[in-house]
Amino acid sequence: MATKDELLSDVLRLPPEQRAELAHKLLLSLEAGPEEQDAEAEWDSELERRAREVLDGTVKTVPWKDVEARITRRLRQRR
Predict the structure, then answer these.
(1) Rg of the Cα trace of the chain?
(2) What is the block-wise mean pLDDT of the chain (79 residues), using blocks of 10 residues?
(3) What is the distance between the alpha carbons of residues 40 and 32, in angstroms, rounded to a whole number?
(4) Contact present, 2 and 10 (Cβ < 8 Å)
């Protein structure tokens, strides 16, 4: 098994986006208990599924301008 210093040396050779992802996951592991980690893994799977659906065209996307107008209309109706 690699030592902490060896791991750090290896990690520092990764591209910046991979280092950022690893740092994020390490920080989350300090804050989150097993339940939160499970929830995060489920959200990751859900986000990947939704992204796949958008990319393969199985879902219809709505332009932000239309969504924003719909939200604004609903908020005004509540007043």
Answers:
(1) 20
(2) 92 93 86 73 92 94 95 93
(3) 9
(4) yes
Helix (H) or strand (E) holding 39, with range, is helix 34-56
Domain edges within the chain: 1-33, 41-79
* Percentages (nearest 5) of helix, strand, coil residues in the chain: 80, 0, 20
**Is there a contact between 11 and 19 (Cβ–Cβ < 8 Å)?**
yes
- C-alpha span between 65 and 27 (Å, rounded): 35
Question: Number of H helices and number of E strands within the chain?
Answer: 4, 0
> What is the pTM assigned to this prediction?
0.43
| Residue 32: burial class (beta carbons within 10 Å; 0-12, 13-18, 19+) | middle
